[in-house]
Design brief:
There is one protein chain. With 138 residues, the chain is an alpha+beta fold. Helices cover 22% and strands 35% of the residues. It has two helices and six strands; from the N terminus they run E-E-E-H-E-H-E-E. The mean pLDDT is 84.
Amino acid sequence: MSELLNVWVPCNPPRAWGKNSKRAFVRGNHAVVVEGSNIKNTKEFLFGVLAGEYHGGMSEEPLKLSIQVFMQKPKSVKRHDCTVAPDIDGIATTVMDVLERLGFYKNDSQIIELSVRKSYEHPFDGSTGIKIELEELL
């Protein structure tokens, strides 16, 4: 296996992920669909952070993607599991879109193994952030 990306992004992860943040309206005689500003901001944030991690070379191999999101735990929440928004499918979609746009791989259909986990704060130091690992499966 060849590691393409292994990055920890210290941040307070955004709540808006995925493709469900779109709105539609009519302009003149045409229907227009635009991505919501919250999801656009999330993608631009990730794009800016991950752009510095890209060192060229587009993979065409099968890939394994692992995403861990450590959210800040609200004081009112008593449970240990993070069962609030965002949904893990939205997290995966957003990260895959950004990685594809940056040129890490040709198409997200190359991802044959996917792991997404969200939880409250990192278990070792209580930090919040996003951990992304991408590797080729040769």
